[in-house]
């Protein structure tokens, strides 16, 4: 299954062989999670052994159910801390072919602190609230080591925020206004954070040590099957021949690849190495090609059935089945990718770009018959989620389906005299990948646990929520805008998981207090945390796309923001109309929302592109002064934007006005197009 020869033969006609080493280098530079050591000799055997034991322990804990929650979470963190220091160097520029003695010591100390809970669990429970000086000392060391691993792997922003919250717990009696509280002792703070299930070992780590880990293992198995190449092939068969085909392939394939990859940067580099050169060869500018891939890849985390880790944490935080989160995400995700797809189509029409020649594209049905088995694990997961099974059970069934498909293909390989493409070595490699990928998620969850722990200890969440509502003068729109700004700023330096946990803890309560559905409030924070990956000035996914396209990073980021405009509008839509999230919604109301929203996205896309069925302001492009042309072009764009926004606003009156205005504008463009065609013939 790892062998993909023959699946992308058509690509050889249009782009050179991708440089795998260059892709790895790029991901290591842009994505902290990818900047890990690749050990050799005895160091490799040690890390592989620990990783395999880690995965086997997680599977045993899940299947047996014999391990108590606190022991499972503490053991999970012990493995994570040990692997964090064995795999990730102290700085970005540290050598990656050595393992300093101090990293071994730090890893062992970090693991020992959490194993102290495992070994002394019964006695710690008995003396709860009366911890010894040794308990406090171990808690302090464990928290400090967690901070260091966060600095290395997740980044400084969340570390600084968590540190500020701890300072707040000590200094409350010196603070003014709504931040004032009586303050807490060192022992109380440390023991609450380290030993309590309301601190580091709270809900986020609980989710991370159960179904998030299983879905990451499932994703690692899917990646090994070569499903990414299959998705690109399918999308090329479906859309490669259309106007601007490669760009549409980028949108579709990135939506599908988001099911496998939880990282915007990895998704951008993985699929972008194929789609971006194709787009450039067809005629798209580098900045636009990189932006298309970045915007689509970032949205991959929004795409059901398997979204980013934050979606699982949302289900846990709200106490909802994961399938409820999936259902709620379907319509917003469709609208997001439809918005990008429309903009890409309009750009292709404006530039007169054609699709790829049919002889260079795979045929859909033969491809599906030959490689369709690859989607079986996804079908299995969707089936069990829809059947009402837990996310844990669905993930386990998906993992089993992946393994069975893999070995089934290997049997077929042997029967045809080929080398097996899936075996024991691949299983070990998958385990190592899963163990490595869970590290950043677990550390982010642990740091978020510190923030949540201080919030529960001091009541800060209610204080900040009330403060935010007061700042917004009780206005919902202003509260949403402040939440959006906070989420985007946090998302520039923190991964989606940590961003969602922080913003949902602090701001979701404020939105809910204004009468909004809890799911809509949490989804709002989730969306803006993700879209930060294409929002300047950081915009890591856009920078990755720019690097592949050899384009200007900031211009690529601005283009990506324009393409992802739907992500800045859709969250406001579902906050004001929760039916979009399938909450108390009839089928007819959902269909009406989708239709009017798509029309709205079309209007907004025309306004941004300056092209619909014809260039905006076209009638004045002949025989008039340049300033007049610009004025009429701007006026027409503004009218399209207004019509689009009116369609997007979830109210019957605005929908009627918006659709009517849009119909008039489209008719106007079609008439001008006909006039232009007549003149051209004459």
From TrEMBL:
Annotated TM spans: 42-61, 100-119, 154-179, 199-222, 288-314, 320-346, 367-385, 391-417, 438-462, 556-575, 581-608, 629-650, 656-672
Keywords associated with the record: Membrane, Transmembrane, Transmembrane helix
Positions of the TRAP C4-dicarboxylate transport system permease DctM subunit domain: 141-585
Coiled-coil parts of chain: none
Keyword Secreted: no
Pfam families: DctM
The name this protein goes by in its record: TRAP transporter, 4TM/12TM fusion protein
């Amino acid at each position: 299954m790892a062998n993909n020869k023959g699946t992308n033969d058509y690509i050889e006609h249009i782009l050179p062989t991708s440089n795998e080493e260059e892709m790895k280098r790029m991901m290591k530079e842009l994505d902290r999670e990818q900047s890990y050591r690749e050990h050799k000799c005895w160091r490799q055997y040690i890390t592989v052994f620990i990783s395999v034991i880690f995965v086997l322990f997680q599977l045993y804990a899940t299947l047996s159910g014999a391990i108590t929650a606190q022991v499972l979470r503490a053991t999970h963190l012990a493995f994570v801390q040990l692997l964090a220091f064995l795999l990730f160097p102290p700085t970005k520029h540290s050598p990656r072919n050595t393992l300093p003695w101090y990293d071994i010591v730090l890893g062992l100390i970090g693991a020992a602190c959490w194993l102290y809970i495992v070994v002394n669990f019964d006695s710690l429970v008995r003396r709860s609230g009366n911890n010894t000086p040794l308990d406090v000392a171990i808690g302090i060391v464990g928290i400090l080591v967690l901070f260091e691993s966060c600095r290395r792997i997740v980044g400084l922003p969340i570390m600084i925020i968590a540190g500020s919250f701890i300072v707040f717990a000590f200094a409350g009696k010196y603070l003014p206004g709504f931040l004032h509280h009586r303050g807490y002792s060192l022992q109380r703070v440390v023991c609450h954070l380290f030993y309590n299930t309301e601190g580091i070992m709270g809900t986020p780590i609980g989710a991370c040590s159960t179904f998030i880990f299983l879905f990451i293992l499932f994703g690692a198995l899917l990646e090994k099957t070569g499903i990414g190449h299959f998705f690109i092939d399918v999308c090329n068969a479906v859309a490669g021949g259309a106007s601007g085909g490669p760009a549409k392939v980028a949108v579709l394939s990135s939506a599908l690849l988001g099911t496998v990859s939880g990282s915007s940067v990895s998704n951008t580099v993985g699929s972008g190495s194929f789609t971006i050169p194709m787009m450039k060869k067809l005629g798209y500018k580098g900045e636009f090609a990189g932006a298309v891939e970045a915007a689509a890849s970032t949205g991959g985390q929004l795409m059901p059935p398997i979204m980013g880790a934050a979606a699982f944490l949302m289900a846990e935080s709200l106490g909802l089945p994961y399938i409820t989160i999936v259902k709620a995400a379907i319509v917003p995700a469709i609208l997001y990718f439809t918005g990008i797809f429309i903009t890409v189509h309009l750009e292709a029409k404006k530039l007169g770009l054609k699709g790829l020649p049919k002889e260079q594209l795979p045929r859909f049905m033969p491809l599906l018959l030959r490689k369709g088995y690859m989607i079986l694990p996804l079908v299995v997961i969707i089936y069990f989620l829809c059947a009402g099974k837990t996310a844990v059970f669905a993930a386990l069934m998906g993992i089993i389906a992946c393994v069975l498909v893999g070995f089934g293909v290997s049997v077929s390989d042997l029967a045809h005299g080929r080398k097996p493409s899936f075996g024991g070595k691949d299983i070990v490699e998958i385990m190592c990948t899963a163990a490595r990928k869970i590290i950043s998620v677990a550390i982010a969850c642990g740091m978020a646990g510190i923030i949540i722990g201080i919030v529960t200890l001091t009541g800060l969440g209610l204080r900040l929520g009330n403060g935010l509502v007061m700042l917004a003068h009780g206005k919902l729109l202003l509260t949403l805008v402040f939440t959006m700004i906070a989420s985007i700023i946090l998302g520039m330096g923190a991964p989606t998981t940590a961003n969602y946990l922080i913003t949902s803890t602090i701001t979701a309560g404020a939105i809910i207090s204004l009468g909004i559905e809890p799911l809509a409030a949490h989804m709002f924070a989730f969306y803006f945390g993700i879209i930060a990956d294409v929002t300047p000035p950081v915009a890591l996914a856009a920078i990755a796309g720019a690097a592949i396209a050899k384009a200007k990073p900031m211009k690529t980021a601005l283009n990506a923001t324009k393409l992802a405009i739907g992500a800045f509008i859709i969250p406001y839509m579902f906050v004001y109309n929760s039916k979009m999230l399938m909450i108390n919604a009839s089928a007819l109301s959902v269909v009406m929302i989708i239709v009017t929203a798509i029309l709205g996205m079309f209007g907004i896309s025309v306004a941004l592109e300056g092209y619909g069925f014809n260039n905006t302001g076209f009638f004045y492009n002949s025989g008039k002064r340049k300033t007049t042309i610009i004025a009429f072009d701007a006026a027409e764009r503004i009218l399209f934007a207004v019509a689009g926004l009116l369609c997007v606003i979830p109210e019957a009156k605005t929908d009627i006005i918006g659709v009517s205005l849009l119909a008039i504008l489209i008719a106007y463009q079609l008439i001008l197009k006909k006039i232009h065609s007549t003149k051209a013939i004459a």
